Amino acid sequence: MENAIELRELTKTYGSRRGLAGLTLDVRVGEVFGYLGPNGAGKSTTIRLLLDLIRPTVGRATVLGLDPRADGVELRCRLGYLAGDFVVDGRQRVRDCLRFLADLRGGVPQQRIDDLTDRLGLDQNAHIKKLSKGNRQKIGLVQAFMHTPELLILDEPTSGLDPLVQQTFLDLVTEAAANGQTVFMSSHIMDEVEAVADRVGILRDGRLVALDSVAQLRAGAVREIEITFAEPVRAEEFARLPGVRTLVLDPAGTTLRGQLTGEPDALVKAAARHHVTALRASEPTLDGLFHAYYADAEAAPRSTAAV
Ligand SMILES: Nc1ncnc2c1ncn2[C@@H]1O[C@H](COP(=O)(O)OP(=O)(O)OP(=O)(O)O)[C@@H](O)[C@H]1O
């Protein structure tokens, strides 16, 4: 089995409302796949279709080589799922709830549960009804990870978590990937996805508008650049260099400011023909790219052949 998830022309309409429109996507075994998109893009719809919690209007989903509709029981044994709207029986203590869920999965060593709750800072003696939203979300994370499933499907897993716990979550994802597990996680937050994902898909209005490896996306991301020279330079020398998006020379002709994508090699070599007194370049972040997709309603699907 090469792909943990295969989606073919997956479409879901809610009456006249579009949830998902003809989504074709493969998630490879062992990869961390970040599934991004604004509110209402169709992320939860996709995830619910994977679990057979809802059924497609058109198209097909295969998960771990299984049909979610026909093989629901086997599938649930082999995956860990965190719902976007995770709810849990408030009458129990955390310990009893997790024990119950562990037994449902055929048994999980208590040591494993203790380790996860310790790392996430979750008190097993607490009554669930008294827990904050973030602490309830931690129960959701523990129950998804505890049986070391082949595939983790996580819908907005960091929702409600403070930054320290978010980092612990990212560590758990990294460890799962090192262990050969596949992770499919949805998020609004490019930064957290960028930190752990191998590939990213960006969904908008039920359609995939970008699909690429994080490395490729980063190569296309924008870097802010500022170069100061000892003597005035001519703007034309720099305007047509590879990767240059915009470059503006200040009135004195000594400071060049602008935006660059990809490698800065050509610009650095051109600048080195002069006496450079200062050079400032920001790290390229995917956040800007992500916002561009959000802003551009008619963005065409993009992918890189090498992905
Ligand atoms: N049960 C439903 N009935 C009608 N419309 C629905 C239903 N569930 C989802 N939708 C619609 O389908 C579209 C996709 O919603 P979905 O919840 O999948 O988005 P999402 O990307 O998960 O958003 P969010 O980040 O806000 O959770 C939205 O327009 C939403 O209003």
Automatic annotation (TrEMBL):
The lineage of its organism: Bacteria, Bacillati, Actinomycetota, Actinomycetes, Kitasatosporales. Belongs to the ABC transporter superfamily. It is found in: Cell membrane. It comes from Streptomyces regalis. Coiled coil: none annotated. Residues 5-230 form the ABC transporter domain. Keywords: Antibiotic resistance, ATP-binding, Nucleotide-binding, Transport. Pfam families: ABC_tran. It is a peripheral membrane protein. Its main location: membrane. This is ABC transporter. GO terms for biological process: response to antibiotic. One of its GO terms (cellular component) is plasma membrane. One of its GO terms (molecular function) is ATP binding.
